[in-house]
Here is the input.
Amino acid sequence: MKTNHSLVLAIVAVVLITLSWWGVLRAQTSLVSRQMERLGVPLLYVAPQNAQNVPGVLIAHGYAGSKQLMLGYAYTLAHAGYAVMLWDFDSHGANTKPLKNNSLKENLNVAYTVLLEQPEVDKSRLATLGHSMGSGAVMSAAINQVDRYAATVAVSPTGASITPNVPRNLLLQAGSWENRFVANAQRLLVSGGGENHNFTQGKARKLVIIPNAEHITILFRHSSHQAARDWLNNTFGINSQSNYVDYRMLWYFLH
Here is the structure.
């Protein structure tokens, strides 16, 4: 009897493990993925299979994070028709280089250069997305090269010199349980001239509060991924029919 019980448990365990890995791998279905390294910066590129001239998005992680933590945004956007580039900042993830004063800017520029080299990317349609520390990096980049990026998504934003004109088409997000970042996002929205829906002139501005999320869990909220996708769709005039939902964390938990 005990042997039969153990056998049943073993079979159930194998089924659940198989199902969980199927769920994780399913996220990459119909996508092309390329692991790269340039000037010591580990990069990950994800795009739709057989894509041509699609918008490109740089996705930057936060302090003590890594590119893997931002995959929910990457897969959501890639399934919606975007080519995305993620990377590990110096002293983060697989990047062993020491973090310096200009590391964030230098690493982002490396990712930008490699993104433009990918054959699927429309170089005239680019956007940025960043979390926490990475939000400051992408906002600064979009302010300093205002004609380079058509939109910026700042999740749990830090600081930047926001005005009503720069960066172009700024979406701010913060979790309802991270009060300090909500307050900071509200200040940035005021500096940017308040809510605006003028995407054509690049002056669109909005703050989205993600319910029941704090500084890390916001990265795994479908509402955060969806808001970013919809903002970029509005920027580039894309009517995406993608219904992808990033369930990878659920599958990992099941495993």
